[in-house]
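Lecture notes, continued. The same structure-token format from the folding unit now serves as the input rather than the output. Read the line below as a description of shape only.
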């Protein structure tokens, strides 16, 4: 299994790069064997099916970098400066899930932790850096859209845009995104719990890069009756078609405005 997939635009390029780091579900067998039975049955907080939901982006000129491996192999949206094994919220390798339940029967040793960083984490970030660097060299700028999804209600918001209270991207870009989500009927908020994770904050430091985190509530695109059980949710053709159509329209308009920014 490749560590990631790059979906290159098949139309006119635009200075936008989409990153999908939490939709991967592949787990190497030697890692899965270390997990508890409960964790193997229910790997929480996957950004389900975003690769399918956004598969139209290359047709609009937007490059996609997509992780294939589970965030419990390595969490690509965490900083290596934190303890590598530790909290789900902060560590590259979580030893407990978001419900504070153990992930491992026995935790990986130091050699395996470093091996995972070397084999999974570093190559992905190198690919993202190169993709953004190439975009900046071509256009003089790059807009990084970090795509995620979430379960909680968060006051009923369907879309949450995180720009670290205006620190990660220009007002014109976040205004553009927000307006098009609102126009399509999505209740949209800014920096409501999700203010922008490690990836948007880190790559914003690259010259010419603006970044934003886009969170979609599960219930916006997944069947609600599939979200409460222990099994992974399914995404039917009808739900996928409806969600993809709306998001495609949103991004078609965003692309046109980005060309004028």
């Amino acid at each position: 299994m490749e560590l990631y997939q790059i979906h290159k635009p098949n139309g006119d390029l635009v200075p936008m790069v989409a990153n999908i780091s939490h939709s991967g579900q592949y787990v190497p067998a030697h890692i899965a064997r270390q997990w508890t039975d409960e964790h193997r049955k229910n790997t929480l907080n996957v950004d389900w099916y975003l690769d399918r939901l956004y598969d139209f982006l290359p047709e609009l000129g937007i490059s996609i970098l997509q992780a294939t491996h589970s965030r419990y192999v390595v969490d690509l949206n965490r900083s290596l400066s934190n303890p590598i094994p530790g909290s789900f919220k902060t560590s590259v390798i979580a030893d407990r899930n978001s419900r504070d339940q153990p992930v491992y029967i026995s935790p990986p040793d130091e050699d395996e932790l470093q091996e995972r960083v070397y084999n999974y984490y570093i190559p992905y970030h190198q690919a993202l850096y190169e993709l953004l660097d190439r975009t900046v060299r071509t256009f003089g700028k790059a807009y990084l859209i970090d795509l995620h999804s979430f379960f909680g209600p968060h006051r009923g918001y369907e879309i949450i845009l995180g720009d670290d209270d205006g620190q990660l991207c220009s007002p014109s870009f976040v205004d553009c995104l927000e307006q098009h989500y609102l126009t399509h009927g999505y209740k949209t908020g800014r920096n409501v719990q999700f203010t922008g994770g490690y990836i948007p904050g880190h790559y914003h430091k690259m010259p010419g890069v603006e970044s934003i985190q886009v969170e979609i509530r599960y219930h916006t695109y997944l069947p609600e009756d599939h979200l409460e059980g222990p099994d992974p949710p399914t995404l039917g053709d009808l739900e996928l078609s409806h969600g993809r159509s709306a998001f495609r329209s949103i991004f078609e308009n965003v692309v046109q405005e980005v060309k004028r920014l």
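Point for the exam: The domain at 4-258 is CATH 3.40.630.40 (Aminopeptidase).
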